[in-house]
Amino acid sequence: MGSPSPAHSLPLLHTAELSRATYFNRVFALVYTGAVLALLYRHVVSLLRSPSLLSLSLLTSDLVLSFMWMTAQSFRYRLIHRRVFIEKLDEVMNGGDFPALDVFICTADPYKEPPIRVVNTALSLMAYDYPMNKVSVYVSDDGGSQLTLFALMEAANFAREWLPFCREKGIQERAPEAYFRMNHPGCQRTEKVKMMYDSMTEKIKIVVEREKIINKYVNTDRDQKIFQQWKKEFTRQDHPTVLQVLLECGKDRDVGGQVMPNLIYLARQKSKISPHHFKAGALNALLRVSSIMTNAPIILTQDCDMFSNDPLTPRRALCYLLDPYVRPSLAYVQFPQCFHGLSKNDIYASALRRIFHINPKGLDGLTGPDYFGTGCFFSRRAFFGGPSTFVELEMPQLSPHHAVDEPTIQSPQLLELAQKVASCNYENQTLWGSKVGFSYGSLVEDFYTGYRLKREGWKSIYCHPEKPAFLGDVPINLVDALSQCKRWCVGLLEVSFSKYSPLTYGIQSMGLLMGLAYSHYAFWPIWCLPLTVYAFLPQLALLSGVSIFPMVITFCPLKSNVIY
């Protein structure tokens, strides 16, 4: 099946096909439900006959497991597989301009998230196979580090060589680190670009190690003036807004004379007495600043350690975002998270295949996958109310329908207004974080934001091409894995026990299946209860000589007795 396509309409850009496994999954769920009810009945009978802490623990554990299994069936109810036809996109555009694209990259700590990774992510996204005059890359530095800004300034200079090099060579891996790591056949041009990249990497490494900007690396008065903003009282928790345009489309050109995308650095204002709402607050600051400066109708949110692995990714997203049949209610197109650098056996299950690859296909057959926090193309309109309801804003320049008419993004009026909307007190007495923008109230702002959009009536689409659209890093040691898991657990429980709990409010607003699906994610931390019980109780019961499982009974009718 696919979107309707009458003979006189636009070419078909995508199709969706129901999985053959769907009906088998439904039959299996029905049969398995009977087995689960029989098990729970046995536990209840056992508890009533001989009440004990052991029986109660087993019943509680199996109730939790049954609940999680039941909610997981919503992912199997309607599996679909999608295909896009990007070769037909030009026919749809009919010679017209592609819509503008704003890219949001978030980073917060130059030591946990090395600036060279941020540079590689930014360069890979700037090198998209997309009209350069339509791309604007915004980097939010929530740590307010001059080290990150220095790295991006170096990246802006290197981009003048890297972007035309990618176009001429037809490179697919447009993150320099990924490309040079693969040992492609070299030529004089390749060696030159590699030397430039190695030189840039060495500069950034030295600056990060010394934790300060070295004067010999700052060559112009303009650059020196930029770094003078970092004064003694400047800390990551308390500092003014730093907004710097590093590349401007109408002004800067690469070595081949082609225009370059916009590259903007933002460290929003922070104060110890004002809440900053972590990543959600940083994304909302980017949303407002980009509205003032470029206001592109499409937004890509990206983690700083997830680089582009396919330059055609924006075109794949457009196959859905430009479809007039799905566009009115489509909030975002989500690509899967894929990782490189995993250990051979992935002993910590860091790939999270069920979350990022399996379950989204089932949600795609309902109203769409949840928001992963990265690799997601949004319609800007989705952040300002439901498909049929628009939330009026406190400033008309922030509206997704506002047209930016300034000749340059560095005009004093634009920069002054952008500084204002990035201040730490701007959101006071506004709807930002509740009904507008990315949602506050949970450490898992991505899950909570996607959940809110679904409650408002928006839909989403899961685009899973054969070639991974993005590749990123994962925790490869136990400490990092546990730290990430703890943050997810706390954030999900904040949603579970809020007034917008998916088990109650979610089912009412999104329907039974989507409510159960979001409940499965929201209550994911309670897996620890049955896992702990079954990790210890069977062994302890065996050592104590206590039976916790049903005894096998064999009836012998000829002898009229029972053998146990």
Shape summary: globular
Q: In percent, how much strand structure appears in the residues?
A: 5-15%
Query: Order of strands in the sheet with the most strands?
Result: 5-6-4-3-7-10-9-11
Tally of helical segments: 17
User: What is the terminal separation in angstroms?
Assistant: 57 Å
Decide which structural class fits the backbone.
alpha/beta
Rg from Cα: 27 Å
Count every beta strand, where a strand is a DSSP E run of 2 or more residues. 14
Helix content: 40-55%
Low-pLDDT windows of residues: 1-8
| Overall pLDDT | 91
Largest sheet: 8 strands, mixed
Walk me through the structure.
With 564 residues, the chain is α/β, with parallel strands linked by helices. It has helices at 21-49, 53-72, 89-93, 115-126, 146-169, 176-181, 188-210, 221-227, 278-293, 313-321, 353-364, 412-421, 445-455, 478-496, 502-510, 512-522, 528-544, and strands spanning 14-18, 80-84, 101-107, 135-141, 242-247, 262-267, 298-303, 306-308, 330-334, 376-379, 459-462, 470-472, 554-556, 561-563. It contains 17 helices and 14 strands. The strands form four sheets. Strands 5-6-4-3-7-10-9-11 form an eight-stranded mixed sheet, with helices on both faces. 43% of the residues lie in helices and 12% in strands. The termini are far apart.
